[in-house]
Amino acid sequence: MNVLVVEDDDAIAEPLVKGLERQGFSVHRESTGLGGVGAFRSSTPVDIILLDLGLPDIDGYEVCRRVRSDSLVPIIILTARGDEIDRVLGLELGADDYMVKPFGFRELIARINAVTRRSQATGTQSDDIIKLAGGVVIDNRTRRVTIKNEELSLTRKEFDLLALLASDPGATQTRETILEQVWDAHWYGPTKTLDVHIASLRKKLGDPTIIETVRGVGFRLRTSIESDNNS
């Protein structure tokens, strides 16, 4: 697996790179945001990015935004910024996970494995095409969502969340089930992450009533939905 580490602090980056290499990863390190974007866009494939926020040129948020404009490659943010607003912003921009320094190396490896497992999943349910109210169409084969033939720009997590809800329309998915299936069974991040992604999905779908809140339990998709296996 090819790992791109974007970290300007040698005291953190050097042992991190060595530790990852001992685990069998192929690691490339960049110390600037622009260098990280350039390395990602080079001909060398990148399977996952470990991204610091406090970089000397453009910050990690901008790196995340630029990478996400090109790809759904998994991104784990590694930063000293532990405030909730920083976590939420990183996740809204498309990061798959967020770890606050100092962190345990074994936990990092576990999160890398969890994120890459999820990224390799082909979908959350068997129907190829799911049609929702308002002209929303989910294509699980291509992982694309369109509204009246116009493609939406969704993060990996937003797509997985919507596909999970659409896999059983009208059924309530508990918060615990969603966090386990879309994030990880051992998710340690803030539970507000789910609410942020639901709010973002509602906004992008253009109809907040498509995803209904079941207070104290979880969320469900409005039942005016059709599925089509023959498209």
What would you say this structure looks like, in words?
The chain has eight helices and 13 strands. With 231 residues, the protein is of the alpha/beta class. It folds into two domains: 2-120, Response regulator (Rossmann fold, 3-Layer(aba) Sandwich), CATH 3.40.50; 129-228, Arc Repressor Mutant, subunit A, CATH 1.10.10.
> What count of structural domains?
2
**SS class:** alpha/beta
Low-confidence stretches: 122-126, 225-231
Span from first to last CA?
34 Å
The CATH superfamily of the largest domain bears the name Response regulator
List the strand order in the largest sheet. Answer: 2-1-3-4-5
Helix residue percentage: 25-40%
Task: Give a brief rundown of this model.
This protein has 231 residues and is of the alpha/beta class.
